[in-house]
Every structure is written in structure tokens, then in C-alpha cells.
Amino acid sequence: MGKFLLKRVIAMVITIFLVITLTFLLMHSIPGGPFTKEKKVPPAIEEALNKKYNLDDSLPKQYIDYLKRIAKLDLGPSFQYEGMTVNKLIKDGFPTSAKLGSFTVLLTLALGIPFGVLSALKQNKWPDYIVMFLATLGITIPAFVLATVFIYFFALKLGLLPTFGLDSWKGYILPVLALAGYSLSFITRLTRSSMLEVMQQDYIRTARAKGLPERVVIFKHGLRNSILPVVTYVGPMIAAILTGSFVIEKIFALPGMGRHFVQSITNRDYTTIMGITIFFATFLVFMVLIVDIVYLLVDPRIKLDD
Amino acid sequence: MENLNSNSKNIPKELWTKIDDTEKNKEQISRKSLTYFQDSWRRLKENKMAMIGLSVVIILILIALFGPMFSPYEYSDQNLSYSSLTPRLDIYKVSDDSYIHLANGLRLYRVTESGKIIELLSATEQNLIEKKITYDVKGKTVLLDFENQPFKLLDGNGNEYSYHDRVWNKTYLFGSDDLGRDILVRVIYGARISLLIAFVATVVNFFIGVLYGGIAGYAGGKLDNFMMRIVDIISTVPLMLYVILLMVVLGSGLKPIIIALGSIYWVGMARIVRGQILSLKEQEYVLAAKSIGTRHWRILTRHLLPNAMGPIIVSMTMMIPRAIFVEAFLSFIGLGVSAPKASWGTLANDALGALRSYPHQLFFPALAICVTMFAFNFLGDGLRDALDPRLRK
């Protein structure tokens, strides 16, 4: 276990380092500096700005300085909002995004797995058809379409739920549903196919033959084994929910990280784009590591020395 | 020998008959032998959903290619006086041959009975204090009273004009957007852009991914390990983030999207190809090819890759809806093609602000995206079952 963890942590550090380098190089390869605007800034002011943000240093020196600052967990100032740092943007936005994201993950798992099991147990009967139809819809409809359709029907036509903001618990319903659409469908399909496979195994027949109640066969022997692929998908799922939340936060005007990110893209706020990208990447790599560890704990068959 | 002779003499004569042809050819294999692709096509044809998907894809491609020819409008044609018209018009009868339609924003149009828009009427008299506008429709007075909802259309004597019918907008079948551009033709042009991006990005990914995965799998050992670590590192972070970063650097437009998609999304293909090559290269025919001195490159391109074609094609068809989705996503967050060009994503994004008043502007591009995603997904699922029956679940 220790060796596995060490290996994974090293790989993680390399990944994050490469992401930082890549972002740095990409952002510095853009023609024109961050202060290049349609309206020409007087050269003296531009020089002063460049000096203030150390943009007149050589590229390697800037790179090393940037790495040093990141090592101190400082992602630098925003070039578009006065007095705003990227750290502060993250601190402001992340709790909202995290709340939205965790609700979505919970909903996805709490609905996706039971639906998948139901669908597998009633294979080729009407519950299966209904669930699979909805799951196919969920996979093919992009989140932003789903979100706008929800807004149109539930908020504008029926007036049941708010169109934007998170003032009450009602505000969460539509964003969470729209965000969960894809992952929920995917998990349902995954659980179904894996459950179908597991239920044909010999040990299920053995369990039935020795007279175990069907409930135990399904949940203890069937579900426990078929849940493994679902655990593997949780890592990519968090990534999907995270990128999905860019548009969802934009549509519902939620004050989260995703909206800051999209705004920084439209404003060409390069330091913010860099900072948030690095933050996202690091966060995801961490989540994937955690998922891997959970996977090890859930499945005793996995060999650790690999 | 003697024994045998005596035996055959014992068999009664009537059993010695000549067999006819049907009996003789019983063992012959009569069914034509099918190649791998013929066989797959046969299996694909049996899959109804996949065939529906395939037909929709073909229809979409035809519409994207030839649709604009049949449209009287260009995607950039603006007509500000015809802006934000809905696809369904409520028309009122003024006289036997003149009908009017009241659009949002107190705009009164003269239309035909079938729903063709003739002109935007200009007011002869405006009384903004009493909230009344007077129009002259072919010699008849129309008084628009907008003091209370619903607005009233009155004639000179104060009687309401009768509601005639709700008809399809014949001038703009899908309605028009906020600049008076035809949404139908813009959705068709959007199909061109979305399909073009999907196609080019998929082809680029195909070449890079197949070569990368092929070389890694065939070379094996340290090189394989190194190349696959790179793939691992790239795919730890969601590919969308890289694409967004690249798009920020390259600027928005058609070419940057293709470059950004093409330079990142090959990692999935590389993994699949490598896995296939790893198992295929242990086959005897590779050994045979090696033993007669075939060059490595030739073994890879002529022997190994054609045999891995099934999974490669499947992952290509899965790539197409993904590329369409990514393009729509990028356009939606403002990194897509720039105006007046439009892709489905930008159309949806533009319509978002006016969702409350003009849902039709969002409905058609969104429907187009969904139908396309459905079609490609079903086709992809069907192809997977047909080309690689082992993967069937």
C-alpha cells in the first residue's frame, strides 16, 4: 500500500508540474501582453505595469518566480479586477461550486445505482425500458440544453422554481438536476451492464442454491461486486461535473468558480485563467487519487504490488 | 478382399441406385463467404436503432451540404424590421384580403392569410399617454390599445378585430433572431460547421491516435512505457480544460477549434489502438511476416492496424458526437466561431438571453444538437455491436 501511494503521489506531482508549465508557456505565447487593449496604453504606463508585475524579466526567470509563488500557494493577482487576487476569487467561488458539485455527486450515486439495479433485475421489461430510455436521453442531451429546457418549463412556464441564484434550497434543484443529467445516465447504464454480468456468475447461482434469500443475493453478492466499475467512474465523473458546472453556473448565474473561469476567459484575464486551471487540475488529480484509494479498499481482489 | 466381394454380393440389387444431384451436393457450402465488413454490415442492418441513426446522419449531411441552396436567405442576411419573429403567428382579420399580426415590442405586421409577412406597418398616429397607436391597413384604421394586457386591436368604431387563426410563419419557417436573420438557414449553416468540425477533428485524431498507439504498442518495452505515461498524464486532467486553454491562446474561430480538438482528443484512440496492437502482435501471421523479412513499418500498417480496424472505427464514431458536443460547449462559453457565422452552440448561447420572450430561438438549435447526438450515439452503439460482437452487452 505504501509503495503504491508513493508512486501515485509522485505521478501526481509530475502531472501538476506539467500542467503548470504548459499553462505558463501557453499563456506567455499569446501575442501581446495582458495589458494590450484596443485603446493603446501610453508606453510609459505599460512599462510601469510590466515592471509592477515583473513582466519585463526574462521568461525563465518569470517561470521560476511563478513556480516559487505557486509553491507558496499564491496564484497571483487578477489582471482585470483591481485589487482582486486569484486566491480570493477561488476562495469566494469554490464553496458554492463545491456545494453544487457534492449535491450532484450524491444525487448521481443515490439515484443512478438503484436505477441501474432495477433496470438489470427487470431486464427487457417495462421498468428497464423506461429507465434505459431516460438514460439515453440524459447521455445525448448536452447540459446547457437540459438546463435551459428546465428553466423554461419549471421556472418560466410553471413558476415553481427560481431561474437563478441560490437563495433557498429551491435554487439548487434545477442546477443540480441539469448538472447530474449526464453522469446520472452514465452511472445507471454502467450499473445495469455490470449488474447483468455479475448476476450470471457462478457464485450467484451458488448463493441461490444454498438457499439465501433473494435480497441477500442481490445486494450482498450481486451489487457489491457490480459496484466496482461505478467506483472507477467516480473520478472521471467529478471531472465531468466540474467542466459541466462552467455552463450551469453561467446559465443559472451562480457565483461559483465555473462562472469566474468563463468570465476570465471572456475578459482574457490571463492570470486568472492560469490560476483557476492549475487549481482545477490539482483538485481533480487529488480526487482521482482518493477514488483510487477507495477502490483499493472496496475491492480486496486487487493486487497492491502492481 | 474376397470377404468384401461376398459382402457386396449379398446386398440386394435394388439398393444399388444412382444418387441424384441434390444428394451429391449436400456437403457443399452453398452460402457465399462474407468478408469481415460484409458480415458487420449484415449485423448492422438488423439493428433498427442503428439504421435510424445512420439515415438521420445521412439526411443531416445532405441538408448541411445542399440545404442553403434552397433558402432565399444567407446566414448573415439581416432585416432589422423583421427581428425576433416567431415560427407561429397569431393573425387577425382586418378585411377580406388583409390580415395583421402583432409581434412582441408593439410591432404590427401586415401578413397574408397563409402566414407570409408583407410589411412592417408604420404608425400614422401615436398617442403614448393614452397608450394607443393608430395604423392604416389598406385604407382601414387599426387602433392598437396597449394599456392593459392582452393588447387590443380595434377598428375605427372601437370594435375588436376578430382573431383569425394561428398559422406557420411562411417567411421564416423557424422564426427569426434578434437581428432579423432566418433561424432555419442559420441552423443549417450551424450543421455545416458542427459536422465539419466533428469530421476534421475526428480524422486528425484518427491519424495521430492510431499512429501513436500503434507505435507504442508495437515497440513495447521502455518506449511504450514512456509514451503511455505521457498519455496518462494528459488524460488525468479533463481534456476540456486543455481545449479551453488552447482556444484562449489560439483565439476563437473554426481553425482554432479544429486544432485544439485535434491536438488533445487522440489520447483515447491511442489507448485503444495500443491495447489492440499489444495482443495482435503475438499472432502467428506477424511472426510469419517477420520471418520473411518484412519491415516493421509495413507489419504495423499492413498487418496489425487493418486487423485492429473494428475498435478503431467504433471509437471514431463515438468521437464524432463528442466533437460536436465540445464545439457546442466551447461556443456556448464564448470561445466558438465568431459572428455572423454560427454554430449550434453559439446559436443556443445567443438565444439564452431572450429565452423568456423567444424560446423558439433556443428550441431549434437545441433540437438540432440533440437529434445529431442521438443519431451518432445510436449509430456508434450499433457499429460497436456489429464490428466487435465480443463487446456486446
Automatic annotation (TrEMBL), chain A:
CDD domains membership: TM_PBP2
Membrane topology label: Multi-pass membrane protein
Family: Belongs to the binding-protein-dependent transport system permease family.
SUPFAM superfamilies (UniProt xref): MetI-like (SSF161098)
Keyword list, A-Z: Cell membrane, Membrane, Transmembrane, Transmembrane helix, Transport
Pfam families per the UniProt record, alphabetical: BPD_transp_1, BPD_transp_1_N
Name the UniProt record assigns to this protein: ABC transporter permease
The keyword Cell membrane is assigned to this record: yes
Location of the ABC transmembrane type-1 domain: 94-295
InterPro entries for the chain: BPD_transp_1_N, MetI-like, MetI-like_sf
Transmembrane regions listed in the UniProt entry: 9-30, 100-118, 130-152, 172-191, 230-253, 273-298
Organism per entry: Anaeromonas frigoriresistens
Tree of life domain: Bacteria
GO BP: any one term: transmembrane transport
Localization annotation: Cell membrane
Main location as per UniProt: membrane
GO CC annotations on file: plasma membrane
Automatic annotation (TrEMBL), chain B:
Keywords assigned: Cell membrane, Membrane, Transmembrane, Transmembrane helix, Transport
PROSITE patterns reported for this sequence: ABC_TM1
Transmembrane segments: 50-70, 193-218, 230-250, 362-383
Biological process according to GO: transmembrane transport
Compartments reported by the entry: Cell membrane
Keyword Transferase recorded: no
Bilayer topology annotation: Multi-pass membrane protein
GO CC list: plasma membrane
Family annotation (Pfam families): BPD_transp_1, OppC_N
Source species, domain of life: Bacteria
Domain ABC transmembrane type-1: 191-380
Chief place of localization: membrane
Sequence similarity: Belongs to the binding-protein-dependent transport system permease family.
Protein name: ABC transporter permease
